[in-house]
Design a protein that fits this description.
4-stranded antiparallel β-sheet; 4 helices
Length: 168
């Protein structure tokens, strides 16, 4: 997937932001940077400070959690236009609940979560759009994780379920 170098054009091409007018989009551009992640590189690690919300633009990123007696387990593979790091927008969570590792060379839009939260507080219209979209992401990921957990319980051997340990 190709995204132009201009950050405004990049954000305009993301369906999440189609409802934003030019002024609101520019406010979002001011708190967003583009980041390149090399294959096998961690974008963030479980337990770290929760400071950015990410939108995958190119590549694939594995979301992993550490499960005692099982090691690292991949719970999600983020692809272009997926949102990761959404817990940074919740008031209770103060640290990463998973690790994000690039499977392929990847490119993400990194949105400063503290500034995005402030923007949502100042402009309730943008806040509604962002939080409505985030709630759908959270609900979808919780359902997926629940189904994976049920599968793990039904098939306790790691070799017998679709979630495999991810180690390099």
């Amino acid at each position: 997937m190709y995204y132009p170098a201009d950050l405004t054009t990049t954000l305009q091409s993301i369906p999440w932001f189609l409802e934003l007018n030019h002024e609101r989009l520019e406010r979002l551009v001011k708190i967003t940077t583009l980041r390149e992640i090399k294959a096998s590189e961690d974008l963030f690690a479980e337990g770290e400070k929760d400071d950015f919300l990410y939108i995958v633009l190119e590549g694939k990123i594995a979301i992993e959690i550490f499960v005692p007696s099982h090691g690292k387990i991949r719970i999600f593979t983020a692809e272009p236009l997926d949102i990761i790091g959404w817990s940074s927008m919740t008031p209770v969570v103060r640290q990463r609940t998973a690790t994000a590792r690039a499977i392929l060379c990847s490119r993400v839009a990194a949105i400063d979560a503290k500034q995005l939260h402030q923007l949502c507080e100042e402009d309730h219209d943008i806040g509604y759009i962002i939080m409505r979209r985030l709630s759908n992401v959270v609900a979808s990921r919780l359902l997926t994780t629940r189904l994976q957990l049920l599968d793990m319980l039904a098939h306790p051997s790691l070799e017998n379920h679709p979630i495999k340990s991810y180690s390099e």
